[in-house]
Amino acid sequence: MRPATILLFLIAIAAMPAHAATTDVHRCVGADGGAIFTDKKCEDIGASVRPDPIHASAAAGATGHLGARGCARTVDDLKRGLQQALAAGDVNRVASFYHWPGISSAESGDILKRLQVLAGRPLLSLQMIGARQPTDADGYRSVASEQPADASAVELTQARSGNDPTSVRTTLGVTHYFGCLWVHF
What we know:
Elements: H1 3-14, E1 26-29, E2 35-38, E3 48-49, H2 56-63, H3 75-88, H4 91-95, H5 105-120, E4 123-129, E5 153-159, E6 167-177, E7 180-184
């Protein structure tokens, strides 16, 4: 190749529009509620603007659900979180309270199926078994204690289904792991 041809080729590449590499991608919500990623404005395609996940927590606070949960450090946190997850019928939220370390891939599929059954049943009551608050020597509740309140199990009472009010009881164990409370079968 001649040097002049190479030079013209390099000039042509340098003159190509730079906007192709810097196109903005917009996250939108379609009429069906599904996510749409596009280089056009959401309004131009008949969709609405998808909320920014970082700022969505303020809006989620109104519904009581955040996209990601923190650690359940107390029995009350665990109880409230499980109640909300089960009331919503959201297996992913229920699974976020499960103690997963040491679970194999095969076991995790079985556990998720069991959690899906729990999430699909209407919740009648949730009781913490063996729950006690740390106390001092005089029997008063200790506010200064760094230990979370103790519980040995969670007992769920659920209707078998929306059409069958027969109650079903499930007991989940509670374990402490890295300062958090987790449930397990």
